[in-house]
Write a structure and sequence with these properties.
With 657 residues, the chain is of the alpha/beta class. Helices cover 40% and strands 12% of the residues. The strands form three sheets. Strands 2-1-3-4-5-6-7 form a seven-stranded mixed sheet, sandwiched between helices. It has a six-stranded parallel sheet with strand order 8-9-10-11-12-13. The chain has a two-stranded antiparallel ribbon with strand order 14-15. Helix 17 crosses helix 18. InterPro entries: BchE-like, Cobalamin-bd, Elp3/MiaA/NifB-like_rSAM, rSAM, rSAM_horseshoe, rSAM_sf.
Length: 657
């Protein structure tokens, strides 16, 4: 028997900071699902609202007041420079925001003239592009026709300068994405966050408080859902809850999201519940239905699903438990999981962006990496092809957690129904499929359904570079609207790929990626260094493979990141199988995720990482592809053992050379 609709209004909130170019999709998913079940559900993006309020004329005036309240000795050169050029910043901020929102495209001419925007330290990054003939320093990146792109890049540097001023003068933790993340990332105790939340409110806090209370006044919810996707949204999420609790103690507040699902699985810290009434794990649909029934008096607390609560006086007094009572006090955190089947992926409903100001998001152009550009430039409708990962074997991945381990798909017809409903609602045809790895069979069926309905969309997403992606399938995906794909090449070493259980080889990756490139699809490779037992020789050889993949046109974009061991990954759960030992963790009552390890190779991976990142930055711009890979390292490394034309020969053997 299906549950009866809840009469209460539910407000889902995106906390600062997430993305500024498009809404983070958690609230769209939850709001769409709740409405499909008859719940009065609304949503609010406080991340965007905060940014737009701080970076407005009123916001800059408040920033100047905060600066003038500082002792002169505490004003950094950056802050002093802003104060001296304040009138120019004040006169340009509204127009620049409007330009980045797409409301005033002709301003690009003035921005590109380099006389309109004040140029702070962030613009010094352009010096590395100055050509020897004294021409346009950004011509290599944008060409003669890239006026809008070049202007967006310059306007983004301008906003980054202002963010730096805000950080120096008001809040040293402020970032557009990683806001105060050190307070939350793998923090074993709540103490650093508690201290930050007890501190006096600064300009960012007071602005967020004003926006939060205005949202509550507007929507009048009985339940507020705050979804934290990343550690960089934790501090603001707790502030939002703090503001609601202080002014509206009768409103219930629930916490969930990717950060919670990953790092708070062993939560025992009672103080979290000074801010939140409920903390839920994993896919939110079933826990939410149970919570709504509980709040409506139709379900007991003991029948909540995957939910942490705080209970008072749970421990018996006296006897053997007296010591525990004195240690923990009268409150304990309890995890309740009345097991019920999750909502099938086919039945979660269609995400809705109704209520979000889609015309106010900003198309930023920060990094000139083509895949990073897709992340930050333009508004994409985010959608999943399936729940979980169909492969779920990679040894560095959190394969034990629900968002990876529970794989569930739906029909191509249902997916395209959702796509068409979203296009009708938003008027926008760009889609980012946010799967961990979209299944090739599902993508093939999706492409066929899109073509059968003559649906004209543009889409991109993440895949595994497996042999199922034949040149024919790559072309079909391109014909259906695919413009870019990303995938994990990780350490480009067959030995390490096998240890990682990636299920691919370097030569296979070359053939698959070349098939995508030949179909006109941009290919981005996620690359890794510092994996257990990785030697300096492995690193040099991996870079040589990457060089050849760029040289042969297999990939156009890439990014190296340092391997981090997590407690939920196969490496973290069975380190001996990967030749490492884990460092002991302190007692954990709050966040638990990253764990240090000892690798017997003793390689200084951070030192190697500098050269790797420099190399790939140049490769993306077609520079240095003929150079010996050893030239990227400022110290001696061994010569590569990879044949110089191995990728070319592999492609030739498959008829792709």
């Amino acid at each position: 028997m299906s549950p009866q609709p809840s009469a209460m209004r539910v407000l889902s909130v995106i906390p600062p900071m997430t993305q500024l170019n498009t809404p983070y999709p958690s609230t769209a998913y939850l709001t769409g699902f709740l409405r499909s079940r008859g719940v009065d559900a609304v949503q609010e993006d406080l991340a965007l609202a905060l940014m737009l309020k701080l970076f407005s004329r009123a916001g800059l005036l408040s920033l100047r007041e905060a600066i003038h309240a500082l002792d002169v000795a505490k004003r950094t050169p950056l802050v002093q420079g802003f104060d001296e050029a304040f009138d120019v910043y004040l006169s340009t901020i509204s127009a620049t925001i409007a330009f980045l929102q797409g409301r005033d495209p002709t301003l690009a001419h003035r921005i590109c003239g380099r006389q309109f925007l004040p140029e702070g330290p962030r613009f010094a990054s352009l010096d590395v592009y100055i050509d020897e003939d004294g021409g346009d320093p950004l011509a290599w990146a944008f060409g003669a026709l890239g006026l809008q792109d070049k202007a967006r890049h310059l306007a983004t540097l301008y906003l980054n300068d202002l963010a730096d001023v805000l950080r120096d003068a008001v809040d040293p933790r402020f970032e557009f994405v990683r806001y105060a993340e050190s307070l939350a990332t793998s923090q074993p105790t709540f103490e650093p966050l508690a201290e930050a939340l007890a501190a006096p409110l600064n300009l960012v806090d007071t602005t967020l408080r004003e926006l939060t209370l205005a949202s509550i006044a507007h929507h009048q919810p009985r339940l507020v859902l705050i979804s934290i996707p990343f550690p960089g949204a934790v501090y603001a999420a707790f502030r939002i809850a703090q503001f609601i609790r202080a002014e509206h103690p009768g409103i219930k507040i629930a916490l969930g999201g990717g950060f919670v699902n990953t790092e708070l699985r062993e939560l025992t810290e009672p103080r979290v519940f000074d801010y939140f009434d409920y903390v839920t794990l994993d896919a939110g649909e079933r826990p939410l239905l149970a919570l709504l029934e509980h709040l409506d008096g139709k379900r007991s607390k003991q029948r909540l699903v995957r939910t942490f609560v705080r209970e008072d006086d749970l421990l018996p007094h006296g006897g053997a438990d007296a010591a525990m009572q004195r240690l923990w006090g009268p409150t304990v955190v309890r995890y309740i999981n009345f097991v019920e089947p999750d909502i099938a992926f086919a039945e979660v409903g269609t995400p809705t962006w109704d209520g979000l100001p889609l015309d106010r998001y900003l198309s930023l152009l920060d990094m000139l990496n083509p895949m990073n550009r897709l992340w930050s430039d333009g508004r994409w409708n985010k959608l999943t092809v399936a729940h979980g990962c169909y492969w779920k074997k990679c040894s560095f991945c959190d394969v034990s957690l629900d968002y990876i381990s529970r794989y569930e798909g739906t029909s191509a017809a249902t997916l395209v129904d959702r796509i068409e409903a979203i296009v009708a609602e938003t008027g926008q045809t760009g889609f980012h499929f946010v799967d961990e790895a979209a299944p090739p069979k599902a993508l093939k069926a999706l492409a066929a359904e899109l073509q059968a309905r003559n649906s004209s969309i543009s889409w991109w997403g993440n895949i595994r570079f497996e042999k199922s992606f034949s040149p024919e399938l790559c072309q079909q995906l391109a014909d259906s609207g695919c413009i870019a794909i990303s995938g994990g090449l990780e350490v480009a070493s067959d030995r390490l790929l096998n240890l990682m259980k990636k299920g691919v080889s370097v030569e296979q990756v070359a053939r698959v990626t070349r098939g995508f490139t030949d179909a006109g699809i941009l290919v981005h490779a996620y690359l890794m260094y510092g994996f257990p037992t990785q030697t300096v020789q492995d690193t040099v050889d991996a870079l040589e493979y990457v060089r050849q993949l760029f040289e042969q046109g297999c990939i156009q974009s890439g990014f190296f990141h340092r391997f981090a061991c997590t407690v939920h990954s196969p490496v973290g759960r069975d380190p001996a199988a990967y030749g490492v030992t884990l460092l002991p963790l302190p007692p954990v009552s709050f966040a638990k995720n990253d764990v240090g390890f000892n690798d017997p190779t003793g390689v200084d991976h951070d030192r190697l990482g500098v050269g790797l990142k420099k190399a790939i930055y140049n490769y993306m711009h077609g520079i240095g592809l003929e150079e010996d890979v050893r030239s990227w390292f400022p110290f001696k490394v061994p010569k590569t053992t990879v044949a110089r034309h191995r990728i070319a020969r592999a492609l030739s053997a498959s008829g792709q050379g």
